[in-house]
UniProtKB/TrEMBL annotation, chain A:
Keywords: Cytoplasm, Nucleus, Proteasome
Primary subcellular site in the record, as a coarse category: cytoplasm
Similarity comment: Belongs to the peptidase T1B family.
Assembly and oligomerization: Component of the proteasome complex. Component of the 20S core complex of the 26S proteasome. The 26S proteasome is composed of a core protease (CP), known as the 20S proteasome, capped at one or both ends by the 19S regulatory particle (RP/PA700). The 20S proteasome core is composed of 28 subunits that are arranged in four stacked rings, resulting in a barrel-shaped structure. The two end rings are each formed by seven alpha subunits, and the two central rings are each formed by seven beta subunits. The catalytic chamber with the active sites is on the inside of the barrel.
InterPro entries: Ntn_hydrolases_N (IPR029055), Proteasome_beta_3 (IPR033811), Proteasome_bsu_CS (IPR016050), Proteasome_sua/b (IPR001353), Proteasome_suB-type (IPR023333)
Annotated GO CC locations: cytoplasm; nucleus; proteasome complex
A UniProt-annotated Pfam family: Proteasome
Function as written in the Swiss-Prot or TrEMBL entry: Non-catalytic component of the proteasome, a multicatalytic proteinase complex which is characterized by its ability to cleave peptides with Arg, Phe, Tyr, Leu, and Glu adjacent to the leaving group at neutral or slightly basic pH. The proteasome has an ATP-dependent proteolytic activity. Component of the proteasome, a multicatalytic proteinase complex which is characterized by its ability to cleave peptides with Arg, Phe, Tyr, Leu, and Glu adjacent to the leaving group at neutral or slightly basic pH. The proteasome has an ATP-dependent proteolytic activity.
Subcellular location: Cytoplasm; Nucleus
Listed name of the protein: Proteasome subunit beta
Automatic annotation (TrEMBL), chain B:
Catalytic residues, chain numbering: T40 (nucleophile)
Molecular functions (GO terms): threonine-type endopeptidase activity
A GO BP entry: proteolysis
Protein name, entry field: Proteasome subunit beta
Function per UniProt: The proteasome is a multicatalytic proteinase complex which is characterized by its ability to cleave peptides with Arg, Phe, Tyr, Leu, and Glu adjacent to the leaving group at neutral or slightly basic pH. The proteasome has an ATP-dependent proteolytic activity.
Family: Belongs to the peptidase T1B family.
Residues passing through the membrane, by range: none
Native source species: Eruca vesicaria subsp. sativa
PANTHER family: METALLOPROTEASE TLDD, PROTEASOME SUBUNIT BETA TYPE-7
Reaction(s) the record says it catalyses: Cleavage of peptide bonds with very broad specificity
InterPro entries attached to this UniProt entry: Ntn_hydrolases_N (IPR029055), Pept_T1A_subB (IPR000243), Proteasome_bsu_CS (IPR016050), Proteasome_sua/b (IPR001353), Proteasome_suB-type (IPR023333)
Keywords: Cytoplasm, Hydrolase, Nucleus, Protease, Proteasome, Threonine protease
Length: 204, 274
């Protein structure tokens, strides 16, 4: 069994028109046993940047704490929030530092940059950045997510349509993966508000 | 707990703290993760006025295409570019690091960077990690001594060649070069040959695909032709997209309004009166 299949996860982010959406499943398991059905994989770094982490749950939490710490230091020194591109470079550097003994997680970063332009990117566990203009996926359900997003995505969707698309892509993909699921957690961020929704999914 | 201070960002270089834990997990039977690789076809050739570099744009994670349009031609200096194959994080990190070292060197010497400098910095780093930093590079540029093209292997050995190919599609591309390369190619002939070599890699090698990126470097000028050719467009795109009949059921919604971004404008003219 791969190290990423120990806890099970699914994270996806999509770009819309001046908005973005990031979604994850809610299961925390130990191999085939489910331990929790409300595990938080997506965290807010600041109002306009979110990071979703898939993979080994302990590294998800440790990495999140380190990143929040580094961002707080940045805020104190620069007196402003980090841009999403800068944050992505920071995460990449922190992951590459552990090149020969890596953190066993794959981040998905989503944010609103200058002029409210949405930015998404994902990385492998050693920090190889992969920028995309449409969607990025990560986790044990990633293969199904790739397929669902390729089919369902279209560019320049508004916030409500984007929410519907990303939710349907997430729920249909985790239904085909034993290790992820048990509901969904979706954040849709526009320049004026953050909408956080918990989805009802199959509990098996 | 180790003595290393956790609250100050590290001074640079690799950190091995998690190695023991990862080895323990592997011994317990869990397989280590696979990294993003750039299966790749990368090529370079020297033509009459300089160097042309070419690369495909597919990044793979095992058998899955992770990125359909990634950039494999990395900037090193205004007159030097480097194509990278192998583990994506290694090629990006090593080219970024040497690019910064070259810039500092330019500030110190006050001269334009030479390709041989970039070559030496890269091979020193790769050799010292004995091939574990898995980056195979094609380095090309034009400096005061003329056009240069080199290949660098992950263990640190280098070759200086008039035309070179690397990556999983290197054999496909090399067959095109061996058949059609000649000295003193013009710019257009050179670009056409490079595009043909990359296309042969894209169509015949499973690790390479999508589009062709080209970079032409001549004395005093460079042209980065991103997505010069797109021989694999998506054929059947549905214009209306998906319409979902059954909407997702939502259990809870929480809306957080974001604070209006305040703009502070300076009012000039009126000084404060005591």
């Amino acid at each position: 069994m791969s190290i990423f299949e120990y806890n099970g996860s699914a994270v996806v982010a999509m770009v819309g028109k001046n908005c973005f959406a990031i979604a994850s499943d809610r299961r925390l398991g130990v191999q085939l046993q489910t331990i929790a059905t409300d595990f938080k994989r997506i965290s807010k770094i600041h109002d306009r940047v979110f990071i979703g982490l898939s993979g080994l749950a302990t590294d998800v939490q440790t990495l999140y704490q380190r990143l929040v710490f580094r961002h707080k230091l940045y805020q104190l020194r620069e007196e402003r929030d980090m841009k999403p591109e800068t944050f992505a470079s920071l995460v990449s550097a922190i992951l590459y530092e552990k090149r020969f003994g890596p953190y066993l997680c794959q981040p998905v970063i989503a944010g609103l940059g200058e002029d409210d332009k949405p930015f998404i990117c994902t990385m492998d566990s050693i920090g190889a950045k992969e920028l995309a203009k449409d969607f990025v996926v990560s986790g044990t359900a990633s293969e199904s997510l790739y397929g669902a997003c390729e089919a369902m995505y279209k560019p320049d969707m508004e916030a409500e349509e984007l929410f519907e698309t990303i939710s349907q892509a997430l729920l249909s993909s985790v239904d085909r993966d034993c290790l992820s699921g048990w509901g969904g957690h979706v954040y849709v961020v526009t320049p004026t508000e953050i909408k956080e929704r918990i989805l009802k999914g199959r509990m098996d | 707990m180790s003595q290393s201070s956790y609250d100050v960002p590290a001074k640079g270089g690799f950190s091995f703290d998690l190695c023991k834990r990862n080895d323990m997990l592997i011994q317990k039977g869990l397989k280590s993760p696979s990294f993003l690789k750039t299966g790749t076809t990368i090529v370079g050739l020297i033509f009459k006025d300089g160097v042309i570099l070419g690369a495909d744009t597919r990044a793979t994670e095992g058998p899955i295409v992770a990125d359909k349009n990634c950039e494999k031609i990395h900037y090193m200096a205004p007159n030097i570019y480097c194509c990278g194959a192998g583990t994506a994080a290694d090629t990006e990190a090593v080219t970024d690091m040497v690019s910064s070292q070259l810039r500092l060197h330019r500030y110190q010497t006050g001269r334009d960077s030479r390709v041989i400098t970039a070559l030496t910095l890269l091979k020193k780093h790769l050799f010292s990690y004995q091939g574990h930093v898995s980056a195979a590079l094609v380095l090309g540029g034009v400096d005061i001594t003329g056009p240069h093209l080199h290949t660098i292997y992950p263990h640190g050995s280098t070759d200086t060649l008039p035309f070179a190919t690397m990556g999983s599609g290197s054999l496909a591309a090399m067959s095109v070069f061996e058949a059609k390369y000649k000295e003193g190619l013009t710019r257009d002939e050179g670009i056409k040959l490079v595009a043909e070599a990359i296309c042969s890699g894209i169509f015949n090698d499973l690790g390479s695909g999508s589009n062709v990126d080209i970079c032409v470097i001549t004395k005093g000028n460079k042209e980065y032709l991103r997505n010069y050719m797109e021989p694999n467009p998506r054929t059947y795109v549905s214009s209306n997209g998906y319409s979902f009949t059954k909407k997702t059921e939502v259990l809870r919604t929480k809306i957080t309004p974001l604070m209006e971004r305040v703009e502070i404008t300076e009012v000039t003219g009126e000084a404060m009166e005591e």
